[in-house]
Amino acid sequence: MRAVRGVALSTVRAYQLAVRSFLAYVCDPLYGWDAECERRFGTYPVQISHEWNSAKHVLDVEGRPQRRALTRPELQHLFDAADERVEEIRRRRRKGVLAAFRDAVMLKTAYAFGLRRRELVRLDVHDFGRNPKAAEFGDFGVCYVRFGKASHGSPPKRRSVLTVMPWSVDVLAEWVEDLWPYCRRQAAASLWPSERTERVNEARVNAVFAQLREKTGLPEELGPHCLRHSYITHLIEDGYDPLFVQQQVGHEHGSTLSVYTSVSSDYKTTVLRAALDKVIERARNEKDQ
Question: Relative to the CA of 199, which of 48, 100, 163, 273 has its CA 20 to 30 Å away?
Fold first, then answer.
C-alpha cells in the first residue's frame, strides 16, 4: 500500500488495527462465529494480523520531512503574491476582486493566529473580541476558536488565541469593516462568505494556497498547514514562552509543539552566541575575583 498507493504509515497501522479488531471479534468463541462459519463454509476464521507482522510506531514524528515552516522571506513572498493577485484583477476590471481580497486576508489570518483549515473556515465575525490587556488591538485582540480539533470522541475543542501580530488587526479591520458587508449573505455571520454558499470550504483554502505556491515557486509538498507550522516556529524564534505558544495553538502536550517547530539557522546561531557570551562573561568574572 505504501509503495503503490503512497499511503502514510499511520494509515497502514489504522487499517491493520481494524482488521485485527474484526478478526478478534469473529474468532472469539464467545460469539459463536467460528462455529457458524465452519457450518456454512466448511472452514473457520483465524487471526492474521499480529504484532510481529504489523507496522510498528517507533518514531515520535512520522510526518513527511518535506513539510516544514515557511521562512519569513517565503511567507512575505506568498502574501505579496496574494495582494498582487487582487491588484491584477482590479487593474483588468474583471470579476472576483472581493473573492481575491477575501482569500488573501484568509491566508494571512491562518498564519497570524496559527489556525487549522477547519478552524479558519468556521470563523464568524463575532469570533473576535477585545483583550483588556492589549487595548491597542481594539475589537481584534483575541480570536475565539469554536471548532478546534477534537480528540478521543469529544466535541470540538474551544480556545482563545490572543493577537500577537499587530499588522493582522489592520488586515482584519479592513476586510470586516469595508468589504465584508458587501459580500456577506443576508443574516449570515460567516467571516469568509462564498460566492454561492454561506462560507468557503477547506478545499477553497487548499486551492488558493496551491495557486500562490505555484506562482511563488514554493515546493509542491507544502500546504496550508505549513502556515500553522510557520506561526509556531516564528513565535519561538521571537522569544515567546513555549507554554504560551502551546496554549495559543491548542496542543494538549508540549511534545507536540516540537513536531511543528523548525527554527531557522539564524535563530540557532543567535541562541548559541548568547549562550557562549554568558559562559565567557562568567569565566571573566571568576578570573577577576
Answer: 163
Q: Are residues 78 and 218 in the same domain?
A: yes
Q: Is residue 180 part of a domain?
A: yes
Pick the last residue of a domain from 200, 223, 246: 223
pLDDT, tens digit only, all 289 positions of the chain: 656 666 777 788 888 889 999 999 999 999 999 899 999 999 989 999 988 888 876 655 555 666 788 999 999 999 999 999 999 999 998 888 999 999 999 999 999 999 999 999 999 999 999 999 999 999 999 999 999 988 777 889 999 999 999 999 999 999 999 999 988 888 889 999 998 889 999 999 999 999 999 999 999 999 999 999 999 999 988 888 888 999 999 887 666 656 655 656 566 566 667 777 777 788 788 777 6
Q: What is the tally of structural domains in the chain? A: 2
Q: Dig out the grid coordinates for 94 from the structure.
A: 474583471
Buried b (16+ CB within 10 A) or exposed e, 127-146: bbeebeebeebeebbbbebe
- Segments forming the whole domain that contains residue 20: 9-53
Q: Which of 196, 223, 250 is the last residue of a domain?
A: 223
Residue 67 lies in a domain: no
Give the three-class secondary structure for 124. Answer: strand
- Please state, in angstroms and as integers, the Cα–Cα distance from residue 178 to each residue in 95, 171, 183, following that order: 18, 11, 10
Please tell me the pTM assigned to this model: 0.76
174, 86 Cβ separation under 8 angstroms? no
> 257 vs 141, 155, 170, CA distance in Å?
23, 22, 28
